[in-house]
Every structure is written in structure tokens, then in C-alpha cells.
Predict the 3D structure of the following.
Amino acid sequence: MRAQQGIAFLVGLLPGLIGGLYLAWEVFPPPPGGSSPAELAIPYQELWIVLAARADAVERDPATLRRRLEALALPDLPERVAALAERGLLENWPSGVVQDLARAAQQLGARSPALVVILATPVPTRVPPSPTLIPTPTASPTATPTPRPSPTPVPTWEPSPAPLETPTATPTRSEGPLVEQRPLCEGSPLLRIRVFDPDGKERSGVRIWVSGPRGTETLLTGLKPGMGDGYADVQMEPQGTYRLGIEGPGSVLTEVAAQPCELPHGPGGWTGWEVDVRLAR
């Protein structure tokens, strides 16, 4: 009896369920939604910007790029794209992605020293190796013939000429950036870099490379306005050695290391550094 009741229930339920779905989706469908890219969360808006910039790198169509990005309805669109490019540079995103973002920001009208640096020739991602001295082969010694004695001439006295003064050459060198560095004992070592122009004013948009235990990182001054226009920093690892260079031709500016030190209060710390770089004229 109970089995017959269950079968009758299913026979009545299935037609009702199918009929309800048909009415909901075919006879009385829901109205179309009004969602748009402007309703996306911030991480997905940033992904939208990256994808639009990457597509424009292939299409090279400024009108299409602008139409895609304006769908986000951002009031500060050029600045947002430029800030995303600078963030990518700071966080070591792939150079192609960062340059595509910088190019898109410029097409939208954004202007900043950081964009100029990003679109310039990239800094090598590794420290150039030091030149290796190639040994010069030494010629095997040859026997020197013994000279035969010759008649000794009678010496004739002649006045000796006055010695000529040889001018002393003053070595010259090309002036490079001036570097001053100061150690700081702290719990979490930090390499703080501050770049000044020849007149002593902090300069933003200067590209710096720092080679350390994690590889080579690229920094850009001025991305932390609260710390100054010429400021940049990188977290150091204990016992790590770091080499610092700057954009343009030239060798390593300085080399510092995070060594153990004694804090005034509490456990032992590590040596962080403040490095001031004054550019040459």
C-alpha cells in the first residue's frame, strides 16, 4: 500500500516540477540583468585593466582600448592604470605586462617619471659579471749569447746636458654618483635608498636595481610619497649581502650586508642601512 502511495506521489510531482520550470524560464522569464564591469570588485577591475592593456599590445587600437577601460566607469582612469604599472614594477611583475600597462596609461593621458622609466630600455636582471683577467702566456727563455770582449775606448770628457723636467701627469677620472651609507641596528633589517639630484633635491622616477639573496629586484624612487620623492626601500634578509646599482652606465655603487648587531633593548638585531646617492651633473 505504501509503495503505491510513493509511486503516485512521484507521478504527481514530476509533471508539476517540469511545468513550473517551463513557466519560470519560458513563459515568465526573469528580466535581463543590468550588471556591468563597473560592478566588479577591485581585484577583478585590475585584472580587466591588465587584460585590456595586453590586448592593446597586439591590436594597437587606442579607441578600442579606451572603450574597454571606460566600461569600468572609474573617475581617475589614467591615474589608476599608471598606478597599476608602477605597482607591477615594484612587485617585479613580468616586464611585458608592466610595459603594456605603462603604454596604455600614456595613451589615456597619464604622465609621470615612472612611466618614462618603465618604457625606457630595461635594466639587466642580473649583475654583470666582473671581467676575468686572461693570463698572458710567458715566452720560454732563450739563451743569450755571451758578448766577446771589445777594445775599451779612451773616455773623452764632454759636458753633461742639463736634465729636462718631465711634466707629471695628473690622473683624471669621470665623476660618478656620490654615495653615503649609514648602518642601523634593527629587528627587521631594511635597505633604505634616497636619491638626490646634483643640487641636493630629491629626485623621483630614478630606477634602481638591488641584487641580493632573492635575486635582482628593480626599484623606483618616488613610489612612497610620504617618505620623500627620492625614497625607495627593500627588505633585507639576515646575513644577506646586497649590491646596489642605478640606471644608466656604470658599475655597482655600493655593497652592504645585514650582519648581527646588539639592540639597545631586547634580543639581538641585524644591520639595516641608509644609503644616500647624489647624482653627478
